[in-house]
Inverse folding.
């Protein structure tokens, strides 16, 4: 079972930027896709961005044009660059991985808190 460890969260003012990192204990190339989810208090967890082994990406409408997901297979790390942050981006951000296209994301990190102040 791969272990995913997120880092890079913190407190930032609206309009600022953060870069989240997700380090995997094994090769991320073996996964069909890696993703970033977030969960705000009282809300359901939602997919923010995902990237496949072929480098195809998709984003939630709420973050398109502001967030960028990328991967470094050599470092077994996935990144989420977050620009123009808004208070509504405040949430715990989770890294996730799925092995096959037909499965759900089954491996999860412990999460990292992102707080955007107005």
């Amino acid at each position: 079972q791969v272990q995913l460890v997120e880092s890079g969260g913190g407190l930032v003012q609206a309009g600022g930027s953060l870069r989240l990192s997700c380090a995997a204990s094994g090769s991320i190339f073996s996964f069909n896709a890696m993703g970033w989810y977030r969960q705000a208090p009282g809300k359901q967890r939602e997919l923010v961005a995902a990237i496949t082994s072929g480098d195809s990406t998709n984003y939630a409408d709420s973050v398109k044009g502001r967030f960028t997901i990328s991967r470094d297979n050599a470092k077994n790390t996935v990144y989420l660059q977050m620009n123009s942050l808004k208070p509504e981006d405040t949430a715990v951000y989770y890294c996730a991985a799925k092995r096959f296209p037909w499965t759900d994301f089954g491996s999860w990190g412990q999460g990292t808190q992102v707080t955007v102040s107005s």
About this structure: The mean pLDDT is 95. The radius of gyration is 13 Å. The chain has no helices and eleven strands.
